[in-house]
Amino acid sequence: MVLLYERGAVISGITVTESPRQRAAAPSASALLTKVPAVTAVFWLTKVLTTGMGETTSDYLARTVGPVPAVAGAALLLAGSLALQLRTRRYVVGVYWLAVVMVSVFGTMAADVLHVAVGVPYLASTIGFSVVLLALFALWYRVEGTLSVHSITGLRRELFYWAAVMTTFALGTAVGDLTASTVGLGYLSSGFLFAALIAVPALAYRWLRLGPILAFWWAYVLTRPLGASFADWVGVSKQRGGLDLGTGPVSLAVGVVVLGLVVLLSRRERGTSA
């Protein structure tokens, strides 16, 4: 997986460089990584697991409490977690990952509602969310001069960041459902497909000198269908091509692992800042 750090760092033997505009827009070294975590292997693992948790949790809640109450409740919890995240002055591990989990749950529901309730085909929603994400990136870059996740220090940049994160989750949900359902690959084959595709930006960064920012966001989008495809395969019924372990138990099991990783990240953060 691509491990990205700020300017001056060396990744896999390649020195990361930025354009003059990006350097001008970047904050001072002491202000780096104040609102988002360092992008490490543990970051990617936690991110993939939260996507799987969001997928199965969304399905479980929609089936047990109903789609409307589930969406309303998820929206309220998302608003509360994001408000808490925006109020912090620096990166707080538990607060950040709570927001990511709620974005995962609500983003999944948003994409599913378009298909199930509104009847929008997965191909159309995939194209639509792609256009929205590209437009958001264009506006973000025009206003801030960089899309680097290592420069999220002010409110405006953080709002751009979370808007992009939300859109990537919705896009990833649509793409995963497109390959599993519309194309007919099923969940397990889709999982293997996205496992292969997510290696592309890492290899392109290492061997073809793909820019670190593009490599990051490319991989970030693919974490959503990667985690969700495998989680669905484990949780859904055998008639749908799964192992039939249940979306509730899968959500609980993955949630425990995510909690353990968050505890690990918290200890690392305390050790770094000590």
Radius of gyration from CA coordinates: 18 Å
Helix content: over 70%
Low-pLDDT regions: 1-33
Encode the helix/strand succession as letters: EEHHHHHHHHHH
Strand order of the largest sheet: 1-2
Distance between the termini: 28 Å
Overall spatial form: globular
Structural class: mainly alpha
Number of strands: 2
Strand content: under 5%
Enumerate how many helices there are, as a single number. 10
Main pleated sheet: 2 strands, antiparallel
Number of domains: 1
- Tell me, rounded to a whole number, the average pLDDT: 85
What does this protein structure show overall?
The protein contains 10 helices and 2 strands; from the N terminus they run ββαααααααααα. The chain is 72% helix and 1% strand. α3 (67-87) packs antiparallel against α4 and α6 (155-182) packs across α9. The chain has one domain (38-268). Strands 1-2 form a two-stranded antiparallel ribbon. 41% of the residues are buried. With 274 residues, the chain is mainly α.
